Sequence to fold (737 residues):
Amino acid sequence: MRRLPESSDKKSDLNVIYIVLDDVGYSALGCYGSEIETPNINSLAENGLRYNNFNVTPLCSPTRACLLTGRNCHSVGVGIIADIDWGPQYPNKRGRISNSAATLAEILKWNGMATYMVGKWHLVPGHEAASSGPFENWPLSKGFERYYGFLIARTDQYAPDLVFDNHRVGKPDKSNYHLSEDLVDKSLEFLTDHLSVTPDRPFFLYLAFGATHEPHQVPKEFIEKYEGVYDKGWDQIREERFNVQKQMGIIPPFTELVERNPGIKPWDELTKKEKLLFTKFQQTYAGFLTHTDKQIGRLLDFLNSKNKMGDTIIVLLSDNGGSQEGGWNGSINDSAYFNGIEESVEQMFTHVKEIGGPFTSPNYPKGWAQVSNTPFKYYKQNTFYGGTHVPLIIQCPQSILDPGSIRSQFYHAIDITPTILELLNIEAPKLYKGVPQMPLHGVSMLDTFTEPLAPSKRKTQYFEMLGHRAIWQDGWVAVTYHKRGVPFQEDQWELYHVNQDFSQKYNLANKYPDKLKELQAIWWEEAKKYGVLPLNDNLFIKGYYGLQEGRTTFTFYPGMAHLPSTAAPQLTLSSYSITIPIFRSTPSDEGVLLAHGNHSSGYTLYIKDNYLFYEYNYVGSVYKIQSSVQVPTGSSTVRFDFKRGQETSGTGKLSINGLQVGTRYMPRTLPFLISIEGMDIGRDRLTSVSANYPVPEFPFTGQIQKAVIELYNDPMFFKKKKRDPISININGSISYL
Fold:
């Protein structure tokens, strides 16, 4: 076994690869007890170490900030998803990594290593994800020399919003395209270039899959692989995984399985239609994970073929637990959850055969999410172990003495980068590019590579997400499930002795009230120390929206790159107009004038067969207006006006050259998010909003002078009442919580 001596000043020539999976719960991998086939990930476990007491934050951006900096997420400004910059009054939620916390990529690049990133970034404020930048929070400004992937939380697996270095690109023109395959293709391209020209220079590759975040999209044969496997339902699958976990030793023998989470129905009480639909959701998730494992296998085969496996450290983990964002019934429309809309089983069942394909954006129901998190309770977003306890596999042939074994020390995402720096014999700089650096908050786990029973160097770790809070100290956990809108001081805290109750089954708060008070006091100390305060539980807070900030008029020009939703005008809960001067040289000129959205939701304005159309897709329900007259040739101005009524209702009107040519009452519009997918001028680039025009893109063959969007009410979140938590009722009305 080769390992640098502790006293050596020589930097290591080892390579480093981080593989980050998305929304993969503790039990989802085969080597953590699942029936899902993950042979390549299992091989990493067989040749490395599995950690069964490893934790992350319960949400993606904060975990990625912890992982890349070795510091706590609130301290570096990423206390929640990066999409919204909460403004200077919340320095812990600015959506970007502070310059006082150099990333691992920056440190390794500074020390002569090549640095490559492929996949999901999600560490840039949403308003900065536009192709005009600014770019200081994009990967190339945070230490990576080459980048290929997507900037925000998620993207379509068949039609992704791709960025290459600092510019947007279209997906490769190949049949049967899938993003996960493309990401590994690009990883191999980067490494081939590297090994061909600079083979003596060590490299760092950060490979962050979109899988298995929704949309769960995967080739049909991977879904069919699991035909019949999940017919037995989530109760039995959870029991089976639990038993396998005990046999494997991936959970302690004294562990007990927690009850079903509140609100999850027993499988036997579901209707036949619910069972068929929910089974298809889980088959698709399982196939998606197996497909991802296959792509990881391609990377491992490449390393083996180039004789690089022996001098490469590989770290594989998930960013948080299984996701509750599919709701009780699952989802096929990705914007439904984020608009507070529960999709009906009846509606989704009509599309059951499409699940996993390019015309749905599936996510499984909460029942399967808890299965993913076996043996724990709750989910992603929550600070119980279901949200934070995830798989961690480290393969390091140079230093691990007993490959294939399990480690049980408590560690956190902030501890990975300090471990890598110690392995490479590199110190984190105290000053980087003239900026004083905050000290690392993480500690090295390196002694666990050779000492199975070494005590954990981590003694305390806090957690916080949208008011959910927890504190771990020396085998005890105090945790609270925060209900939005309830004063923080009224939260009911629970107490678990996880050294004896691994799954957090037995709440000891009443038995040991003094211990609970002690841990609560420690949580507040840690919160002050690491910048967790002030607390706020409102995901829909008005922050700084960049392009949206203070503006009511937006002018876009043809040729503009795809604009992500996070940087597009927020038309929700507002009256607005869209005005587009055009020129048609012949009656055959047609196509999309402006489109914002995808098959799940959004709006589009287009000309087809000489008529002007407006369509609004409300999570599958379409409001369409067709002009009563044809659009003339030559110059004309087309316009759509929306006058908001009560709650989310309103009336849309089409006009050509000032003459009204169509109107439609729209009883429900989306209150928060128009679409996960962004906006295009003169085409519909990624996936189409409307089924009424051909794909891809349906580009306008005439000329567009510009597209002007004007807002006539305060935009979303700007009025005080609109910042309050709300739910959307079945009739489209709003209830303020």
Observations:
- The two ends are 60 Å apart (CA to CA).
- The chain has three domains: 15-449, 460-529, 546-736.
- DSSP finds twelve helices and 32 strands in the chain.
